[in-house]
Design goal:
The chain folds into 2 domains: about 35-130 and about 255-320, 3-Layer(aba) Sandwich (D-Maltodextrin-Binding Protein, domain 2); about 130-225, Periplasmic binding protein-like II (D-Maltodextrin-Binding Protein, domain 2), CATH 3.40.190. Helix content is about 45%, strand content about 20%. The protein is built from 11 helices and 10 strands. Helix 2 crosses helix 9 (about 265-280) and helix 6 crosses helix 11. The longest helix is centred in the N-terminal third of the chain and has 26 residues, at about 5-30. The N and C termini lie far apart (about 75 Å).
Length: about 325
C-alpha cells in the first residue's frame, strides 16, 4: 500500500469510528433495557423484605425500569443467595444481602457458593444498630453497671436471641468477649419472641433492633442501655454507644447491601452504585428508614466487600470461641 493510500485509509477509518461513537455510547448506556429482579431471601413482612421493597421502589424511579422484589425463602436466606450466584452476570438479577450472610458462610461451610468469590459487591444500603436492653428488674442503669453485675454473678444473667448463630446472638457474644463476662444464652424462634420474653422477665437482657423494642420501651417494659453502632443512632440520639460506655471499638450492626453474580461488567456495577447512592441518600428515605430504627448508609463496592471480609473473619473467631453449630 502506497503512502498516499495508507493516509486515505487511515482518514476513512477515523471517519467511520467517529460516526459510530454515538452508537457505541448508546450501547454502553442501554442498561437497564428490561426489568431487574431483586431477590430477597426472607418472607414478606419482615425487616429484610421491607428494606428490599423500599430500595426497589427508589431504584425503579431512578432507573426508569421496574425493579421487582422476588421472595425466595428458606434455609436462612441461603436458597436466595444460591439462586443469585447461579444467575447470569448481566446486572438483571440482584440480591439484597443481610448481615446474616457472613454468619451463614461460617456456620455452613458446605454452602454451594462463596460470598467473597461468587459475587460482585455493589453497595451497602442500610444499617440498623442493635440496642442493648434489659428487663426493668435488672439493677443496672448503664453498661458499666451491667458488666459489674455480670462479673459478680458468672453465668447467672441470661440473654435472649432470635436463635443460635443469629446476628443478635453473635452481637451478645462479642459483648461477652470484650467485657470478659459469662452469660446464659436462651435462643428463641425469632426476634419478636425473644424481645417479648425479655419484657416478661424470662431473660434479663437482649440485643435487638430499635424498631422491635420501641413499643416495649414506650410501655416501660424494657430499659435501653446503649446502641451497638460506632455512632449514635439518629432514631435515639440520646442513647450512648457501647464504645462510649466503656467498650472501646465495639461496632456491630445489622445491615443490608446489594450484590450481584460475579462477572457483572464494571460499568454496570458503577452505574448501580451511583444510582443507589442517589436513591438512598435523600431526606425522604432517611425519614422512612428512621421510623424503622434504620439509617441510610451507602458505600463503594470495595468498602462493602471489605465489610463482608471483616465480618467473616470476626464471625470465625466468635463462632469458634463459643462453639456455635448450625441448627
Amino acid at each position: 500500500m502506497r503512502k498516499s493510500e495508507r493516509r486515505l485509509f487511515q482518514l476513512l477509518a477515523g471517519i467511520v469510528v467517529c460516526a459510530n461513537l454515538p452508537a457505541f455510547d448508546s450501547w454502553a448506556q442501554s442498561y437497564p433495557a428490561k426489568p431487574i429482579r431483586m431477590v430477597v431471601g426472607f418472607a414478606a413482612g419482615g425487616a429484610t423484605d421491607a428494606t428490599g421493597r423500599m430500595v426497589a421502589q427508589k431504584l425503579t424511579a431512578h432507573l426508569a425500569q421496574p425493579v421487582v422484589v422476588e421472595n425466595r425463602t428458606g434455609a436462612g436466606g441461603s436458597i436466595a443467595t444460591e439462586r443469585v450466584a447461579a444467575s447470569p452476570a448481566d446486572g438483571y438479577t440482584l440480591l439484597l444481602l443481610p448481615a446474616s450472610g457472613p454468619i451463614d458462610s461460617v456456620l455452613r461451610p458446605k454452602l454451594p457458593y462463596d460470598l467473597t468469590r461468587d459475587f460482585a459487591t455493589i453497595s451497602l444500603v442500610v444499617i440498623g444498630p442493635y440496642m442493648l436492653v434489659v428487663h426493668p428488674s435488672v439493677p443496672a442503669r448503664n453498661v458499666k453497671e451491667l458488666v459489674a453485675l455480670a462479673r459478680s454473678k458468672p453465668g447467672k444473667l441470661s440473654y435472649g436471641s432470635a436463635g443460635v448463630g443469629s446476628s443478635a446472638h453473635l452481637a451478645n457474644e462479642l459483648f461477652n468477649s470484650m467485657a470478659k463476662v459469662a452469660m446464659l444464652h436462651v435462643p428463641y424462634k425469632g426476634a419478636a419472641e425473644s424481645v417479648v420474653a425479655n419484657a416478661s422477665g424470662e431473660v434479663d437482657l437482649n440485643f435487638t433492633s430499635i424498631n422491635t423494642a420501641l413499643p416495649l420501651l414506650k410501655a416501660d417494659r424494657l430499659r435501653p442501655l446503649a446502641v451497638t453502632s460506632a455512632k449514635r443512632s439518629s432514631s435515639m440520639p440520646s442513647l450512648p454507644t457501647l464504645d462510649e460506655s466503656g467498650m472501646p471499638g465495639y461496632d456491630r450492626v445489622g445491615w443490608w447491601g446489594v450484590i450481584a453474580p460475579a462477572g457483572v461488567p464494571k460499568d454496570i456495577i458503577a452505574q448501580l452504585n451511583a444510582t443507589i447512592a442517589k436513591a438512598i441518600n435523600t431526606p425522604e428515605m432517611k425519614e422512612s428508614l428512621n421510623k424503622l430504627g434504620f439509617e441510610p448508609h451507602t458505600s463503594t463496592p470495595e468498602q462493602f466487600a471489605a465489610l463482608i471480609r471483616t465480618e467473616i473473619a470476626q464471625n470465625i473467631k466468635l463462632i469458634k470461641a463459643v462453639g456455635v453449630k448450625a441448627e
